[in-house]
Amino acid sequence: MDHVRQVVVQARQKLYDSSGIYISGDQLAYFRRQIVSRIEELHLESGSDYLEILDNGTEGVEIHHLLKKVFIGDTRFFSHRYQTTAIVDYALPEIIHEKNCETVNIWFHGVGCGEGVYSLMLLLHEQNLRYGHNYKYNIIGSDVDDDALKQAEQAWFRWSSVSHLDEGIREKYFSKEEGNQHRFLPLPGQTITFQQLIPHEIARWQQAEQPDLILFQNILMYYGLRQRQQIAEQLHGRLSPSGYLFVGPTESLYQVTDKFRIIHFTKTLGYKKPGNG
Amino acid sequence: MSTGNEAIEVMRDRIQGIRDLPTLPTVAVEIIGLVQRESSSVMDVAQVMYRDPVLTAKVLKLANSAFYGLRRQVETLNQAMVVLGFSEILNLVQSVAVIQAFNDEQFEPSFDLAAFWDHSVGTGEISRALAGEIGLRFDGTDFTAGLIHDIGKIILELYFHQDFERVLKASRTGKTPLYQSERKLWSVDHTEIGSWLAEKWMLPVRLVDVIRHHHNPLNSSTDPALVAVIHLANTFAKTAEIGFSGDRVIFDLKRDPAWAVLKEHAPAIEEFDLERFTFQLEERVDQGRDFLRIVNS
Q1: pLDDT (mean) for A108-123
Q2: Helix (H, G, I), strand (E, B), or coil: what is residue A185?
Q3: Rg of chain B's alpha carbons, rounded to an integer?
Q4: What whole-number distance in Å separates Cα of residue A217 and Cα of residue A196?
Q5: What is the helix (H) or strand (E) element at residue A103, kind and residue range?
Q6: Buried b or exposed e, range B163-194, using 16+ CB within 10 angstroms
Q7: CA B280 to the chain's CA centroid
Q8: Ranges of each domain in chain B
Q9: Minimum CA–CA partner of A16 in chain B
Q10: What value does the CA radius of gyration of chain A take, rounded to a whole number of Å?
């Protein structure tokens, strides 16, 4: 094993141990580039020096820096295709079946500029059309970042966020605006509202409806184990019985909570809150 | 109208009546027989294996590959048997022999044999990893069992191609497990059919048991822990979409029948980091793919 690879493998382990985020095989080459660039930025002499900083830096500052480097910039529609598919094809139909309801409440925390939440809305609409359903979805999108939320609320997207979508999908769900911007159009039966929220203040947050589905993506990784445990506890409390929690696609709740059932879907995991029965 | 048992007998007769049913190489058959006799020695096995230089070369190449990650080069079969153990060598021979019993030319162009083996080596490799994680040891039988667990599907594809296509489609559209769709049509599924072939090939009882019960580990009477490991590895391989398995699954490990079996045989499974294991699945399979590359080279 070459030296850089050793550093990458060890850095991956440290990241997982401290944040619960696993850098999967397909992200590894990108992760390697981020580490090499970080070593250069810090003017370090070797990868071992960098591992030392990851271990002994102030309160996990470098771990956070690395996490941001790896996870920021993930701003395209359907960047978590498997997770979105699992939600739309399996988790939500199961919730609807178990609750025998026509309206589902969704809380999506970490919406950023909105690509993920609008991807979900688009697929939910397609699903309603395909099966002739009339299910309604009330969605709350929240984030720490107020500026990102404002952008999400406007639903305007750069070309780079939508360029990979089929032209038919772009024409059906977006209006083309000035400067090659694309605006996501409102959908019947779906409401979305945006709110700013700092995760460790969840306990004080008022929510009108109990969510049946919570998406809480790549947020917990910025907290220490104890805070992660507290937040997971609060998410469990908020979620309705038989509801689902989806964290980041390679984010783990191992040793954070065992109150959820871990459900394996195709290439993704979901956490199901046991029902009342 | 025939009863379920009659239908199974009809299917069994049809399969046993197939004249060109794939066979294992003579040397492999002899070795499998030798190993099952208690009086056989390492030398006996080596002498038989040397009669097939291609098989010997492949076994040595595999012994020296990343699959085992040995620190020292192994140059002779005797050395390989000392370093890896008798059981590992037997498993290598069986794995190589089964893979080589089939080739692309036997199949309709629509069947992707490489994808079939990809799922199989994936299951084998995940079995090895899972057994290691929870502290179970099977001396290489886990990999071989994972590799050949779906062998019945090959028979269905080879000799019942059109019906098998229909069954695959029914499973896809109905989101039902493939073995259930097979049973609807034939009253029997690939597990039973695969076990008939394995018996015909005189494979060890443990392997026959895995092939027969890999969808129902609670029915295993020979080695329930091994069957449970293969059952889970197969399920993991399906959720990770490794190769072609013919259907999709959604599962909750703790409600799976294999969980109860493994909790009894490997209590370490309670502490198992399931999430990390899941995230690593694709990477783990790479070594198994090397195995396949060497066998097919």
Answers
A1: 94
A2: coil
A3: 19
A4: 15
A5: strand A103-109
A6: ebeebbebbeeeeebbbebbbebbbbbbbbbb
A7: 21
A8: 23-101, 108-296
A9: B276
A10: 20
Give the contacts of A36 (CB within 8 A, at least 6 positions apart): A4
**Of B255, B275, B282, Cβ closest to residue A253:** B275
Quote the minimal CA–CA distance from A266 to chain B in Å: 4
Residue A58 has pLDDT above 70, yes or no: no
> pLDDT, tens digit, for every residue of A20-41?
888 887 778 888 888 888 888 8
CA distance A23 to B98: 36
Phi, psi of B24 (to 5 degrees): -90, 155
CATH superfamily, region B108-296: Hypothetical protein af1432 (1.10.3210.10)
User: How does A232-249 read in b/e, with b if 16+ C-beta sit within 10 Å?
Assistant: bebbbebbbebbbbbbbb
**Cross-sheet strand order for the sheet of A190-196:** A190-196, A136-143, A103-109, A213-216, A244-247, A268-272, A261-265
Cα–Cα distance between A247 and A245 in angstroms, integer? Answer: 7
Residues on chain A touching B241 (C-beta within 8 angstroms): 266-267
Q: How far is residue B227's CA from residue A220's CA, in Å, rounded to a whole number?
A: 37
What are A182-196's pLDDT values in tens digits?
999 999 999 999 999
Total number of residues shown for chain B? 297
**How many A/B residue pairs have CB atoms within 8 Å?**
56
Handedness of CA A37, A42, A47, A52 (dihedral sign): negative
Rounded Cα distance between B280 and A24, Å, is 7
Residue-level pLDDT at A59: 60
What is the residue-wise DSSP string for B72-129? S---SHHHHHHHH-HHHHHHHHHHHHHHHT--GGGS-TT--HHHHHHHHHHHHHHHHH
Residue B178: closest CA among B191, B187, B186, B167: B167
**What would the two tokens of residue B247 be?**
């259907």
Enter the ipTM: 0.89
Q: What global pTM score does this model have?
A: 0.90
Binding-site residues on chain A for chain B (CB distance < 8 A):
16, 22, 24-26, 90, 250, 252-254, 261-267, 269, 272
Q: Test A254 with B255 for CB contact under 8 angstroms.
A: no
